[in-house]
Design brief:
5 helices, elongated, mainly alpha, transmembrane helix
Length: about 120
């Protein structure tokens, strides 16, 4: 079961990388007002959601303790991220505030995962 959990963690990290990488690719054009939500951001956020739910289930099935409050906070942030990316995905240009919010919430999600024990 540990190998499966670690494999799903790896997929979760790839989702984070896609979401954050998509954000970082838009930083240069964000100042010009030409930024957009790239497909990698949506796919990364969806990957994070699916693998995150799978990780909770796998850890509970393996009798590991799960901090449900922490998971709830991370899920709430991810839902906001997903909502922003999904709604703005077809727009040619998005506001810098919307893109910045996605980047900040993604970074916050990473720091919550790493620092909150």
């Amino acid at each position: 079961m540990d190998v499966l959990i670690h494999a799903v963690v790896g997929l979760h990290i790839l989702g984070i990388a896609a979401l954050l990488g998509g954000f970082l690719t838009q930083l240069k054009v964000m100042g010009k007002g030409e930024a957009r939500m790239v497909p990698a951001m949506l796919h990364g956020a969806l990957t994070m959601l699916v693998t995150g739910v799978a990780l909770v289930g796998l850890n509970q099935a393996d009798d590991h303790t799960v901090n449900t409050f922490k998971i709830g906070v991370k899920l709430a942030l991810l839902i906001v991220i997903l909502g922003l990316v999904y709604v703005k995905r077809d727009e040619e240009k998005v506001e810098a505030a919307a893109l910045g919010t996605v980047g900040a919430l993604t970074a916050a999600n990473v720091f919550i995962a790493v620092l909150w024990v």
